[in-house]
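Exercise: predict the structure of this protein bound to iron/sulfur cluster.
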Amino acid sequence: MEIIKVVPRGYCQGVVRAIQIARKTMNTDTKRPVWMLGMIVHNRHVVEALQELGIRCLESKGKTRLELLDEIDQGTVIFTAHGVSDAVYEKAKAKGLAIVDATCPDVRKTHDLIRSHVKHGDVLYIGKRNHPEAEGAVGISDRVHLISDETDLEGLGDLENVLITNQTTLSIIDTQDLIQACRTRFPDARPQPEICNATTMRQKAVMNLRDTDLLIVVGDPHSNNSNQLKEIGKTAGIRSALLVEDAENLKESDIRGFERIAVTSGSSTPNTLTDGVIRTLEIYRDTGNFRPVPLPDSII
Ligand code: SF4
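Solution:
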């Protein structure tokens, strides 16, 4: 069995920065309790490690960031790497919460682009419905229209001076298809793709894999960029692709019979988890024994 360690993989700068900001907040003299407004990055292990430091996580399925704020009245709130709308910022301020903003600079750049364009035109924002990054972007103005699939274009009336942009962690392939659909509906629309560099490089590395039987993506099921890596693997001609959270979630039946196995990870996945999966494969290759490597004590 051959194991291919895909490069680049794992943490991006935005995720490293968000984790550092959260840690620093706990180490400074700030208003307590300290809350993250949703998962700081989309990885359960990272969130749990920060909870062990004393940071509480506000997360409730189906609730928007704006609604989650109803659950707290004091302390410090950390905005996650996915960014928030102006309404969330204003509501936190009005409640007297101390605000720490861990929005990724790449997401902020897209927000600035949208904020500037809505002064004189409409924006078609390609993104995932109910994803916090899309919530933050669409919340900037009524002139931002969420396009999750082609059917979202059907209900739109006449729009002016249309800009097409997108969530930073989408698939390069799917986004091109949706940009094309937007341009068919609005021929004068100007596309400005905003998939971030970290996402682009990780996806291209998967697209460039050759003669690979199996792609293992280490990542959280909530992580959009991890899911996209798996989908890209399928379209890149790899026989099979799967997403696993960590080595303990890998089964022997997942890897049995595959000769060339590539391993990558989403940009919110700690390297310790990816290393555990790689080590598990190496032990299997070298001894024939399948023994998932236990999770390390310190994950982030
Ligand atoms: S994946 Fe891209 S947008 Fe998201 S945190 Fe990382 S660098 Fe920022």
